[in-house]
């Protein structure tokens, strides 16, 4: 099936590539794809194209990679060129998903139907950079996708539609990301079909209360603070898979990455020990005393090694009851 509504797409990671693929497969013309400049990645730090750029190139879509779209920013000439390209590319609407560049009002005003953002939370909760991670970390019971008519604020625009999904006890950022990427792809295609049919999309302003911000995930957050409750640490480990993972440093300075863990009831053996103390080691898990309750570690990795189930990890890196993880310096 083909459509006449012309869509400029702006996005960068896998989450965005899923939406671009769905829009393209649905038959909407995509005259231009914007994505972040190639970045060094991997062991050799070679320049790598974003998932969105790779999809666009594989399907013959034109790609632009401006460093900025803000005339008042550090790259005024690149911004001017990027804006000129948007103005000279005939289109009706712009769809934005995890693009990573700030869009000034001047850019939001170019498309006839404005810019629609695919945001991975139930707004106004978790505006900002890392909504999937922060929803798991906070123990939210559900999250979802909100389509939003963009304005110049940070994820403050009026809401067009949403879809919800429960967060299960074993969801990680990786599993939830894939579910939300698929849901967002479906939601945007439905919205574009409706926009083409009726020439408008109804939207409602976001509520003023319940606003939270999802700060970008920083590498230093990987260090688990054993003074916290085991429940909170278990959520942190799930939120930080695939990046940056959880980490503990033993008293001898060796680092252990922690990829899977669950909280054990506070009555478990060793819950009276000092936080960070390993209280029990078995093929079923390494138990570590926390500020409240005990954390059972079930998937571990040593630097340079592979992620391993605890039984295999212990075969190569023995741990013993009584050993202690260092407590990170309180922020």
From TrEMBL:
Catalytic activity: L-methionyl-tRNA(fMet) + (6R)-10-formyltetrahydrofolate = N-formyl-L-methionyl-tRNA(fMet) + (6S)-5,6,7,8-tetrahydrofolate + H(+)
Gene Ontology terms: cellular component: cytosol
Ranges of residues in domain Formyl transferase C-terminal: 216-317
Annotated residues for binding of (6S)-5,6,7,8-tetrahydrofolate: 121-124
PROSITE patterns, A to Z: GART
Residue span, Formyl transferase N-terminal domain: 7-192
GO MF, any single term: methionyl-tRNA formyltransferase activity
Top-level EC class as recorded in UniProt: transferase
Keywords: Protein biosynthesis, Transferase
Coiled-coil positions: none
EC number: 2.1.2.9
Domain of life: Bacteria
Alphabetized NCBIfam families for the sequence: fmt
Its job: Attaches a formyl group to the free amino group of methionyl-tRNA(fMet). The formyl group appears to play a dual role in the initiator identity of N-formylmethionyl-tRNA by promoting its recognition by IF2 and preventing the misappropriation of this tRNA by the elongation apparatus.
Annotated family: Belongs to the Fmt family.
Protein name: Methionyl-tRNA formyltransferase
Organism: Paraburkholderia monticola
Gene that this polypeptide is encoded by: fmt
């Amino acid at each position: 099936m083909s459509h006449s509504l012309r869509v400029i797409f702006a996005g960068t990671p896998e989450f965005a590539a899923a939406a671009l693929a769905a829009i393209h497969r649905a038959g909407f013309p995509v005259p231009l794809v914007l994505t972040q400049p190639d970045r060094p990645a991997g062991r050799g730090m070679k320049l790598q194209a974003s998932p969105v750029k790779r999809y666009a190139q594989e399907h013959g879509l034109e790609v632009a990679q401006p460093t900025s779209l803000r005339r008042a920013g550090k790259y005024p000439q690149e911004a001017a060129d990027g804006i000129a390209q948007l103005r000279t590319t005939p289109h009706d609407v712009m769809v934005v998903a995890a693009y990573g560049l700030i869009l000034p009002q001047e850019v939001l005003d170019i498309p006839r139907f404005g810019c629609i953002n695919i945001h991975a939370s139930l707004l106004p909760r978790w505006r900002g950079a890392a909504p999937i991670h922060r929803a798991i970390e906070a123990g939210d019971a559900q999250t979802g996708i909100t389509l939003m008519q963009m304005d110049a604020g940070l994820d403050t625009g009026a809401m067009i539609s949403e879809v919800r999904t429960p967060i299960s006890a074993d969801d990680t950022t990786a599993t939830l990301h894939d579910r939300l990427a698929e849901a967002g792809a479906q939601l945007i295609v439905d919205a574009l079909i409706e926009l083409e049919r009726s020439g408008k999309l109804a939207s409602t302003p976001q509520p003023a209360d319940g606003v939270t911000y999802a700060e970008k995930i920083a590498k230093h957050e990987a260090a688990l603070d054993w003074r916290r409750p085991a429940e909170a640490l278990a959520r942190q480990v799930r939120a930080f898979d695939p990046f940056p993972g959880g980490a503990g440093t033993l008293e001898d300075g060796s680092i252990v990455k922690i990829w899977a863990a669950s909280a054990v009831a506070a009555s478990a053996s060793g819950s009276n020990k000092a936080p960070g103390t390993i209280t029990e080691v078995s093929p079923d898990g390494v138990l570590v005393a926390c500020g409240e309750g005990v954390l059972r570690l079930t998937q571990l990795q040593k630097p340079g090694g592979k992620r391993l189930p605890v039984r295999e990890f212990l075969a190569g890196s023995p741990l013993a009851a009584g050993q202690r993880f260092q407590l990170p310096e309180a922020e």
